[in-house]
């Protein structure tokens, strides 16, 4: 797509509970705020005389992302990262974002207003000053956006499963069309798997294991750790993977009747620890796929309205 000076830049942002994803980057959702400039300045964002350190930890799960200012600050950081890639410090930006499938209709207007609370914003990120003019925002359903460019592949009956850090979104896509009344959101994301592993390790060994180690095993299936710890982590993750399929079956998943498409950062749980038919289950490991899908859908929508040349 070619932009002129008058065209807004569409920036897709996947506001996950564990990570913020754009089309080109991924970072943790942690936000620590200071009144004075902190000693350690990695990923420092300065906005309205406040100092925010971005991405040190994950944000706790909350069903309403508009409860505080954290996701707004994270949005500014995401925009800065995308503008940096484009060698820009000033731009007109159209945000393309999303919400869990069953929450979109209820929360999209308020989330849009939250993201567009300022028409213009000036801030610093990693020592670089940015000026952004917001031209609008579109809110799309999570999960579906990750496969929006592949709908022609969804022939027959298909179940789409988007496993994020906080939630698991499920949608039926039949004969290349999403089924609006068969969408479900479960609080059964990768973070719940992490918590289950930590609890079991404490029970078995009486030790609190660093989250980074557990995360590495979950994402890659192994880590540089003793065999007894590795076996315990794998066993709990396998139980959690079984729980994912149990919930899918509660929503009438049947591997003999349909294909399963798995997306999202938590798809690694299925890949590394589940027992599944690789001919009937397709896993998209691109953690940025949803953000890319948001951009595609927003671009198509603006084209229809004549907003992009």
Count of DSSP E strands? Answer: 15
Derived from helix and strand composition plus strand pairing, the structural class reads alpha/beta
What is the fourth-level CATH superfamily of the largest domain? ATPase, nucleotide binding domain
Q: What is the N-to-C succession of helices and strands?
A: EEEEEEEHEHEEEEEHHHEHEH
Low-confidence stretches: none
What fraction of the residues are assigned to beta strands by DSSP?
A: 25-35%
| Biggest sheet, spatial arrangement of strands | 1-8-10-9-6-7-5
Radius of gyration, whole Å: 20 Å
Q: What gap, in angstroms, lies between the N and C termini?
A: 9 Å
What is the CATH class of the largest domain?
Answer: Alpha Beta
CATH topology of the largest domain: Nucleotidyltransferase, domain 5
**What characteristic shape results from the CA principal axes?**
globular
Number of helical segments with 4 or more residues:
7
Helix residue percentage: 25-40%
Largest sheet: 7 strands, mixed
User: Would you identify the CATH architecture of the largest domain?
Assistant: 2-Layer Sandwich
Mean pLDDT: 91
How many domain units?
Answer: 2
